[in-house]
Specification:
single chain, Glycosyltransferase family 1 protein, glycosyltransferase activity, Rossmann fold, alpha/beta, Glyco_trans_4-like_N, transferase, 5-stranded parallel beta sheet, 153 residues
């Protein structure tokens, strides 16, 4: 089975998903891992256990809808090319854009692991600015749209 894992930082990928990646490869799966900040050493660490590391660009806290759309298109094209059986995403933007891209690319098993709602939902000591309120509503809408497309959350 082909499995595509979409995250944000290589630190979280190696720190929290390394054993899972090893187990998936040991079980005979073809595993791909997307991250934004690979260096030679981190790529080699994954290659050594049989995982295919893939670079991509995503702004974890950016609010530019054009950049998010470009990221969605990149993910969609990559998923169509890899044709994974399972897409597993974690963190806010990969869960939203990765899940939607996987759905529209025809992936039948989509898993999202949301480890928190994101910085928009954290308490602000001086109250919540209007911009944050608007962004929070948009993020909730995106969660609703994306999470209707997944199999497991």
């Amino acid at each position: 089975m082909k499995i595509l894992m979409i995250g944000t930082t290589v630190q979280s990928l190696l720190g929290f998903r390394y054993e899972l990646l090893k187990d998936l490869v040991s079980a005979g799966h073809e595993v791909y891992a997307l991250s934004v900040d690979y260096d030679y050493k981190s790529k080699q660490t994954l290659i050594d256990i049989g995982v295919v590391p893939i670079d991509y660009t995503i702004s974890r806290s950016g609010i530019n809808p054009f950049k998010d759309f470009v990221n969605f298109i990149f993910l969609y094209k990559l998923i169509k090319k890899i044709t994974p059986d399972i897409v597993f995403s974690y963190f806010t933007k990969p869960c939203i854009w990765g899940s939607l891209a996987a759905y529209y690319a025809g992936v039948h098993k989509i898993i999202a692991m949301l480890e928190g709602l994101g910085f928009l939902f954290t308490e602000q000591p001086s109250g919540i600015p209007q911009k944050t309120k608007i962004l929070k509503r948009i993020q909730i809408l995106l969660y609703r749209i994306a999470f209707k497309k997944i199999n497991t959350l």
